[in-house]
Amino acid sequence: MGAGSIGCFVGGCLEAERAAAVTFVGRPSLAGPIAAHGLTLRGFGREQHLAPAEVQFETEVGALEASQVVLCCVKSGATAAAAKALAEVLRPEAVVVSLQNGIRNAEILRRHLPRQRVVSAVVGFNVVIHEGAVFQQTTTGPLVVEAEEGSRDDPWIAALRSAGLQVELAKPIAPEQWTKLVVNLNNAISALSGAPTPAMLLSPKYRRAMTLLLDEALAVLHAAGIETAKFRGVPLRLMSRILKLPTPIVRLVLRAQLEVDPESRASMYQDLERGRKTEVDVLNGEIVRLAGACGVEAPLNRRIVELVREAEDGGKGCPHLDADVLLAALLSGEPSG
């Protein structure tokens, strides 16, 4: 449900490896390219193609009526509407798995799907869409699922693993979700700069903007008494210290921690470029809301939300702010121009 970059990639892996029969429900804007080209999956040793006849891509939620497991991949702002639509068609025994950014999506799904079981998950990798219905994984990472080995979720988790996806289990999953959210605070910098992720990580000034947002968020989480998980084995506070080191050292550490495609960019950048509403409110905006609830301030995350909203309202796509302009706008609170 919500077969965009993540949905088509994960569903495509399941279909390509014959791990499960998949029905995709997504935008009409993707239906045409997939009908013409099929679906191509790329990234980190994967190169697979599904012909158009092998992809059941629909635009109406009724196509999911017989589904046993639904992977919900819609943007966070569309969660309630998607849940209401699913409630009209799903069987009571269906499982709905939230593969979404943010903290609150599973709660929203459960509110509107009281008969179905909802499971949270965290997507630890990024996927971009290229022309011709090509879905390219641009960073490595696992799917983290709120489950335990030996549970009733074993069959569909086994299917995901059979599809060549790295799946890890965590219960409770909240620390993993908060860690993903904190790491994703950088999506706003990607969206405003247009810089590929590797270039952004190797720029001292972009990294300074990243660590300013990160450190502020960690202070807010500390005030709220919220624990985070390690990110690829590294505590978030240590990650902040690493990002403040000289660039040659950062390059060595990052090379050991994860693989990143040279052209990788955050999905928030893609949303701006397509004139769509971003998820900044459920990422940086979540830190701002939490700060308010705790009686503390989060002025930097509040400012980055304002900058992204300015870009959304402008309707001209990514503003391509260089590091000096972005950092100045973040620190001064002045318009970005």
Written account of the structure:
This protein has 337 residues and is of the alpha/beta class. 46% of the residues lie in helices and 14% in strands. It contains 15 helices and eleven strands. The protein has helices at residues 5-16, 28-37, 79-87, 105-112, 154-162, 174-183, 187-193, 197-201, 204-224, 236-243, 247-257, 267-273, 284-294, 299-314, 323-332, and strands at 23-25, 39-43, 46-50, 56-58, 69-72, 95-99, 117-123, 127-130, 134-137, 143-145, 167-169. The strands form three sheets. Strands 5-6-7-10-11 form a five-stranded mixed sheet, sandwiched between helices. Strands 3-2-9-8 form a four-stranded mixed sheet, covered by helices on one side. It has a two-stranded parallel sheet with strand order 1-4. The longest helix is centred in the middle third of the chain and has 21 residues, at 204-224. The protein is globular and about 55 Å long. The two termini are 38 Å apart. The relative contact order is 0.12. The mean pLDDT is 95.
